[in-house]
Structures are given as structure tokens and as C-alpha cells.
Amino acid sequence: MKRILIVKVTSLGDIVETQPVVSDLRRAFPSAKIDWAADAAFADIIRWNPAVDRVLSAPLRKFKKARSWADLKDIAASIGELRAEKYDVVLDIHGVYKSAIIAFLARGRRRYGYKNRDLGELGAAFAYNKRFGPRPRTDAWRGMRVSVADALGYTFDETPDFNLHLPPLATPLELPQGAPIAMLFHATSADEKKWPVDRWAETGRSLTARGYRIVLPWGTEGERKEGEQIAALVPGAIVLPKLSVTECAHCIDASALVVGMDTGLVHLAHALGRRTVMIFTATSRGHFGISAPGRSVSVGDHHAPPDVASVLEAIESVLTGTVTPAARDVATGAVSW
Length: 337
Prior knowledge:
Strand content: 15-25%
Membrane topology: Peripheral membrane protein
Oligomer: single chain
CATH class of the largest domain: Alpha Beta
EC number: 2.4.99.23
Subcellular location: Cell inner membrane
GO molecular function: ADP-heptose-lipopolysaccharide heptosyltransferase activity
Catalytic activity: an alpha-Kdo-(2->4)-alpha-Kdo-(2->6)-lipid A + ADP-L-glycero-beta-D-manno-heptose = an L-alpha-D-Hep-(1->5)-[alpha-Kdo-(2->4)]-alpha-Kdo-(2->6)-lipid A + ADP + H(+)
CATH architecture of the largest domain: 3-Layer(aba) Sandwich
Number of helices: 13
């Protein structure tokens, strides 16, 4: 095996949680060149993994929004770059039209994709001449690792290795000193995923009483205003300035605790080895949750948002290194979806 292409286009959380596949491939094929094709919006995160040799990116999301000629030229250039190499195997572990088109355009002898019932979009099937096995009964993240390992005939270490190395910042962040930082990611991509402001405030006050300094990140003006509402109810809480993804990653890395919704940056906290609690309200904990027993745990579930007591219990578990029933469920795939 000389050259491998991974196709996982979006989104932030999925890109982060796919990094262990790279580590698995690197152990199985130490001398192989491993490339990755993704949307340009997430390419920098992949570059944080030194085991990836080349990141192929195109501004697909940006073009969809703006339809600019410059973005179209960048996409055309990225296709030329993609086709400049021949691959022994192309692994589409996304399974939608856009990833399938990339897999099809790549010069790959074997192009793997999911079986029809496991595809995100059925039409993606046109791109593949090989198929992964039936999707295993486990969470989405381990499922990707199992699919690739079974297809290429290797075994993997159950402990995922994310291998992310943050680049240095040109200007260091100014963060609160003198107390451990608890970062609360209250923002979500959809209103149905939100957890109420009063519950965030109660959680923040409990952590403040334990000696933590609460910081609140945001990405949009609406999220900033919501952060200010929470901060007004939590003594000493700080609403951070708007941060880039890299700046936010450094802030996460400097935090003693991260609590947040099922979002990409909370997946990043888990990948960076922070003590992390992920809250679910509208998506499946068993399918998309995080679990590192005694360090990361998911709480709540699809249409079953947790109460404050459950979140505080989860926080206690990651701060003391104990394993809750919820953590065991996600780790073993016992939660249904």
C-alpha cells in the first residue's frame, strides 16, 4: 500500500472524530502516503495532524453560498491537484454526493464506499467499485474505524489516537489567571439543539462555587448576546472576544473543563484530551456521543435533554475520574439510535 486518500468533507466534529482513522492507517501501513480531501473550511484542522501528508481542499461551502468566480476557479484547481496522484485505495467515509464525486474524480484503483443502506445519500453509490462491510452496531466514530480496518485487513487499538498538534499563535491569548478555566459552549447550529439559558447559568454558578472561572465563546451575534445573558447570571463569568478556530482550540487546550452542546468544538475538546461533558438534546448520544471513561462523557439524548442535576453529575464524574452509567453506555454502544 503506497498511497491512500481519505474523503471526509465536512463538518468540524466529523473531521475531528475521523483523525483516529489516520493513526490506524499509519500503524498498519507505516510507509504509505496518506492524503485527505475536505472542504477548505476545515482543512486547517486536518493539517494539525502530522500523519497526513497532503490536504486537498476546495471552497465547496463558500461557493454554494456566494457562487463566486474565484471560488469556482479554486475548485477547478483543486480537481487538478486531486488527479495529480494515483491512489492504491480511496476511502469515502462520508457517503454523500459531494464526497462520492471527489472519490470518483480521484485516480484510484479501488474506491471504497458504504453499502447502500448505510449511505447518507443513495446516489453516492455510483462512485464505488468496492464496498465497506455492513455498518457495525457501534457509534459513528468507531464505526468508521471498523469499516476501514475490515476493508483493508488490519486490526486497531481501541483507544483512539487523534494526534492533533496545535500550531502556535502569533499573539498569545489573554485568558483569566489565578483560577482553573471552565469553558461553556452554549451555542449550537440549530435552535432545537439548545439547552436553556437558566440551566447554563445554574451550571455556571455551581462551577464558580467550586473555584472555576467561567468563559463563554461565541460565533454569531445571537450567540454573543446569549453568552452575555448567561454571564449576567454567573458571578465573574467572561464572554470571550470572537475567536478563530485555532484561537478557540488554544483556549480549549488551556481549560481545565469543557462543557458544551453536541458541536464540533466540543468534539475538539475531547480530542485534545480535556475533561469534557457533551450535552445532547436533539441528536443521538449513542451514535454521536463522546466517551473516554473518567475523562469525557455524554449526557442527555435525542428529544431527552438533561436536567442540571444530570449535567452536574456528569461534570463530577470527569473531574473525579469516575465512570458513570452514561459513559459505559456510549463506550459499549449500548445506547440505541
